[in-house]
Design goal:
Helices cover 46% and strands 17% of the residues. With 312 residues, the chain is an alpha/beta fold.
């Protein structure tokens, strides 16, 4: 039988949120009359008109959603009926609900290929935006995103991982599904490029602050073909990160293998590194130095893990 606590928690949050929106409509009913804006010009920030107690209630609901997101992502990843696209949409649902609690409408635009009469001109990266809305519209938005998430969770494997191992011929056993709090780093390894080692150490440090152990291919103890061990890591690590600096064919191969498995890869590149057509449609931010890499990755991990770092 399924452990339905995730769905139960979501329904509980939804009920509390709808009560919050109902009271907020009454508390802000006078706002538009006192604002010096025509009714068609929706630039009113209703959130700032809420009393502190109501704002605290909304922040508490948002915190509960963040905690639930940490449980939801693994459940979706190990579900045979769901894909990486479902995981992305679940993330949008959580963002949409959290935005609605501050009376903002969350919008997302996927990757767009820009073309003219069959000629590809470039790729527009995914974009996210928010706009102020009335509490009633925010409630509708919240319920829309909540229903989208419920439909996915109904297909998800909400049972705790059973801990069974899969046997891999010629190598040590690796847990089926994924190994929680693990990350695998795909990048160019060269003793002649110390800046690569510095980048790798910075990535490991960022993951460590979230309680996640990140390893690179040269960290793995193995008794068999190293290529197979790398593929096993890509299959089972909870998080995958790639630095495409150097445009190494092996790194592109590993990213392609991960995508073929339906795995999401967090990608970065040192400033000036071109992106080959193979991954041009994916988000791959540039970093100019280690500080910039740390800033980018820490923000990304807060979104992926659904919360702030656990360690300094």
């Amino acid at each position: 039988m399924k452990d339905v606590s995730i769905l139960e928690d979501l329904m509980s949050i939804s009920a509390d949120a709808n009560r919050f929106f109902e009271s907020s409509e009454l508390l802000t009913a006078h706002v538009e009359e006192t604002e010096d804006h025509p009714s068609w010009y929706r630039s009113v920030d209703y959130w700032k008109h809420l009393p502190p107690q109501s704002q605290a209630e909304a922040k508490g609901l948002a915190s509960r959603l963040a905690q639930l997101a940490q449980q939801t992502a693994p459940a979706i990843r190990r579900s045979p009926l769901l894909t990486e696209a479902d995981e992305r949409e679940a993330g949008h649902s959580f963002k949409g609900m959290r935005s609605a609690l501050k009376f903002r409408d969350f919008e997302f635009e996927d990757v767009k290929v820009l073309h003219d009469e069959g000629t590809v001109l470039g790729v527009q990266a995914p974009q996210e935006s928010e706009r102020w809305v009335k509490p009633r519209r925010a409630r509708d938005s919240f319920n829309h995103w909540c229903q989208s998430l419920i439909e996915r969770l109904e297909l998800a494997d909400l049972r705790p991982a059973d801990g069974k191992d899969i046997s891999i011929e010629g190598s040590k056993a690796i847990a089926a599904g994924y190994r929680p709090n693990t990350a695998f780093i795909m990048m160019w390894i060269s003793k002649d490029r110390p800046e690569l080692e510095d980048a790798c150490n910075k990535i490991k440090e960022c993951f460590r602050r979230f309680g996640i152990k990140a390893v690179r291919a040269d960290d793995i103890e193995h008794e068999d073909v190293i290529t197979q061990r790398i593929l096993d890591e890509i299959k089972t690590a909870e998080f995958l990160i790639a630095d495409i600096t150097g445009e190494r064919p092996s790194v592109y191969y590993e990213i392609g293998y991960a995508h073929a498995l339906g795995r999401r890869v967090v990608m970065y590149r040192r400033s000036g590194t071109p992106i080959h057509f193979d991954i041009a449609a994916y988000n791959c931010p540039e970093y100019t130095n280690l500080t910039a890499l740390e800033t980018l990755l820490m923000k990304r991990l807060e979104v992926l893990t659904g919360g702030p770092p656990q360690h300094a």
